[in-house]
Amino acid sequence: MYLTYRFYLCALLVVILLGMGQFFPILFRVGQGAMLLLVLAAVAEGVALYTRGHVVARRECADQFSNGDDNIVVLHVRNASPFGVRLTLIDEIPFVFQKRDLRLRAKVGAGESCECPYTLRPVERGDYAFGRIRVFATTVLGLLSRRYTSGEPFSVKVYPSFLMLKKYQLLSAHHLTEIGMKRIRRVGNNTEFEHIKDYVKGDDYRTINWKASARRHHLMVNVYQEERSQQVYSAIDKGRTMQQVFRGMTLLDYAINASLMISYVAVGKQDNVGLISFAEQFDTFLPASRQPVQMRTIMDSLYNQQTTFGETDYSVVCHRMGQLLSRRSFIMLYTNFTGIDALKRQMPYLCELNRRHRLLVIFFEDAELADYAATPSSTTLEYYQHVVAEKYLYEKRLITAKLAQQGIHSLLTTPEKLTVDAVNKYLEMKARGLLS
Fold this sequence. Notes:
The protein is α/β, with parallel strands linked by helices. It has eleven helices and 21 strands.
């Protein structure tokens, strides 16, 4: 049993009345009466709560959470009491969220039920342990509160962002532009005629089949089949440079989410997808495949990937890829370079990988630093800071130029745009026949 704020306010009023009774005797009698009413009301409410009151709550959420996305948790509450209650619900969410102000309030009538939803956005992968549900119930008087303990502790696994996959799957082809994905025109001679279909918004006008359109009296377009069964590998650097945090998530987490989306899109394009992760040592290798279980295998492999504090050894990576990848493949390398000197140390190995395979280097631009560089300077110190920021941003663009000089494709993007930009780059290079 707990005393509420309303009880203390009423008690304070009684004390004031009794105190004023020293100067006005009538107020002393009023204070005595108020104190008696307060005690009787508190006793009556306590008896009602502890003899006839009964509240049950349960938690409903997915067994797996999506990293970096809003995951919905719903608390179902049922009031089995013969009177209405006011509830304050405290769910013991995983401590990693460091969220101590999660309190849900509801009014539930006699014999009724209600739902109290809230969202959680994890920024780290791993196991998250929920505790119990604490329900504090009070009647219309609001003087006493009874605590009910409901729910059972359980754990959920936080996987790389799979909600984006569902969103991509639900969107039709002409709605993909809503999340930034572009329709890439097929060019070159790497396509074969497949069939004729009705024209829909977004189809290329140049693929209209005028003879078929004249026979059907509405527009028809030719559909071409792209090259299939190409090997697409997501190679993720787990070195210290991928520990940088942007909006609560590390660069590694952004790279993992993007690689999962790329794998899903590539499987839909009939390509074989695989996974490589490395740091000081060559860590994970999943051979390319497009079997139905491949996406689940990739998700399970990405589940426990963590960054290290060491420097990535690209010589080991280059040697192991030479041993394991016998067929020319398309490698999407997620990494980050702190400057032009860091690129020069790894350039020989990148050139060797690009000679054996088709390499796309994906690295990150510091969006917060770019926003700071765009602000005006007012002091000498700020001028120096802006010069350093602009130099750092210039080196990022210089890295892109250096890679292009060696015939290596690259993508410089911000963490929040990584997934969309990477998918668009894959679709663009596939349409141009550059994957092999």
